[in-house]
């Protein structure tokens, strides 16, 4: 038997059961992205405040 492997496109995620986020479920990757973005903004603001305070 010959098995073929097809590359999966992110647009195909809705076609595969169990993949992706269904309505009403939490999105861990999205939440991690938001937390990392928030931490980056806080670090930038802290750096700007430190520069302002030292000037």
Outline type: elongated
How much strand content do the residues show? under 5%
Task: Sketch the topology as an H/E string, one letter per element.
Answer: H
Please state the average pLDDT score: 80
Question: How many strand elements?
Answer: 0
Radius of gyration: 21 Å
Q: Helix/strand-derived class?
A: mainly alpha
Low-confidence stretches: none
Our count of helices gives 1
The helix content is 40-55%
How would a crystallographer describe the biggest sheet? none
**Distance between termini?**
72 Å
Q: Please, could you describe this protein's structure?
A:
The protein has 55 residues and is an all-alpha fold. 49% of the residues lie in helices and 0% in strands. The protein is built from one helix and no strands. The N and C termini lie far apart (72 Å).
Structure, briefly:
This protein is mainly α and 55 residues long. 49% of the residues lie in helices and 0% in strands.
């Amino acid at each position: 038997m010959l098995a073929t492997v097809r590359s999966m496109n992110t647009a195909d995620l809705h076609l595969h059961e169990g993949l992706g986020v269904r309505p009403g479920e939490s999105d861990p990757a999205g939440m991690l992205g938001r937390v990392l973005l928030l931490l980056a903004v806080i670090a930038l603001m802290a750096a700007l405040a430190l520069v302002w305070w030292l000037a």
